[in-house]
Amino acid sequence: MIEAKLNDEMIRIAEARHHDPFSVLGRHPCGEGVVVRAYIPHATEVFIAEGNLPLERIPDSDFFEWRGSGKNLPEHYRLIWRDTWHHDHIAHDPYSYLPQITDFDLHLFGEGRHSHAYNFLGANEHEIDGVAGILFAIWAPNAERVSVLGDFNHWDGRRHAMRVRPGSGVWELFIPDITPGIFYRFEIRNRNSGEVLTKSDPYGRRFEMRPGNASIVAPRSTYVWQDTTWMERRAAADWQHAPMSTYEVHLGSWQRGYEGEFLNYRELARQLVEYVTRMGFTHIELLPVTEHPFDQSWGYQVTGYFAPTSRFGTPDDFRYFVDLCHQNDIGVLLDWVPAHFPKDAHALARFDGTALYEHEDPRKGEHLDWSTLIFNFGRNEVKNFLISSAIYWLDEFHIDGLRVDAVASMLYLDYSRTEWVPNQYGGRENIEAIEFLRQLNATTHTEAPGTLIIAEESTSWPQVTRPTYIGGLGFDIKWNMGWMNDTLRYMGQEPIYRQYHHDLLTFSMLYAFSENFMLPFSHDEVVHGKGSMLNRMPGDEWQRFANLRLLYTYMFTHPGKKLLFMGTEFGQGLEWNSAGVLDWYVLDFPLHAGMQTLVKDLNHLYRGSSALHGNEFEWQGFEWIDCHDYQQSILSFVRKTDDEFVVVIVNFTPVPRMDYRIGVPQPGSYREILNSDSHFYGGGDLGNGDGPLVAEEVPWMNRPYSLSITVPPLAGIVLALSA
Length: 723
Prior knowledge:
This is 1,4-alpha-glucan branching enzyme GlgB. By secondary structure, the chain is an alpha+beta fold. α5 (265-279) runs parallel beside α6 and α13 (541-557) packs parallel to α14.
């Protein structure tokens, strides 16, 4: 009969305060034999299965002990116990296993150089000596104790306390005999305050449907990819000189089921692939599908950096989505948010009772505008977390690129704040964030060749898309927010006043080739009271549609990759509502259907003409014909490669220009290959018809040859040499 009282170590375990339960629980030498000790609240009796050896309860406690020689006791024995609800259980003792995470993994993680930290942190299927289970691991350096909670232990933080790996802040526990699909959380006790927190897994790969927030152990994927051809071609592609027209999509409001329910990733894939293929886009960009608790954040307040949102299905369902896109030659880009994270108590905020992922000082650690927290990019483990997330999406889901959200907010310490802390040199640059971005780009380009990292950067920060080895940030593409803002500001003017704002159009060509630019008309331009793209255009109904057709023609002929947000391609009249569905019904009306047809034709023209996409990042691809005709608000220019050129004329007034003469690069017959005023698009059908336009030997605009053409009102035309 055991009469021993609990020692201090046991009391700390019973009170869920012990940092190393393995020093007490499990199998230990004892005199000439061994002692096996278990702590199982709610157990009425406990046995070692091998030999049916009974453990005795230490009086007035939930500790049970067996003492004996241990000669016939296997290293990994099983415990049988009956609980107070008269249920029987059998499982291997988790406290009979040695540490599983290698010192090398911990070393790289501590240095911030482990780009696959998700392979050992979080919840991973694992097997030891033929025994299968789940290896749980988490980084919580300021914890006094960390436990795994789940249905398998009645969410009792006393049951499965983890061991800490000294010097790393990493806690781990292998729990045998449990399988993927279980719900779990981590319970963390802060070592200074004693505060107990319940947290979702930062490295969790699947979460329960909101409003729940438990993590779910995801099984190893058995998905068989069918996109080998795409992946091989992507790795060797000359993407800088290839067309790239991106359709930005919010999956929850692009399309829904008959009863307003979310569609599964697989059904969304089938519908989107058919539509995007027909429309001629080369890529889909998804607003964040990383797990998030609040629908109206559109995914930008992330709580699951390794988990596709459960709103639309499982991780393998999402793999199917990407795979089907690739099989149909459509790339998939993902909005990714490393700049900030929400304050939700179950997630990263004050994860171990301290400012762990964020800064303690709110002048550095909080975005007041967004009521979110800023990652502490100076901590190696935080950088490791984010870079591992990026690699996870590129590797596990074959994502073709990441659009990095809110880069400007990362680069400047005084971004949208009056109180801020300067860097060590007294400047406003966030040196730690800069180094993180460079490491991110260098790592992704090394480990995922052919993928693109795209910066949403709204300032004039230099060399955003230049290599890190010459001092750049290392991004592939930068959103041209200056072009977008200037162009929309110009288009918002009544045409009679546009002559006074001509510089808003011409200014972009002063810097168009300083970076690798993408021209974005994104979701940000159709929310928060800005109105739809259509209703941002001035004039009556006909003029609004004509202006928008003109804008898109100008966009697709201007140097730079292209991006349009869903619904803008058919001129949706209402501002985007993420809680509803796009107004597809407006396609029953000719002007909307014509707008959609124009975007389709612009995509196919852009993709089929090397002159429009071959030199988008080089000054050799653009040449003004005339940028000075501000009084008539007309621009004319040439887009070209060594082998091909097209002539573009855009008229930003509702006045048709008859017998308008422009200089052209070469003699010969020209033909009109696109006219945004065509009746096919809902226009007035004024233009130059199907007949040839013969260049005359009349010098004009510093060119030896010229054409006399008709320029339709509020429209753009594209001319090419006849074959």
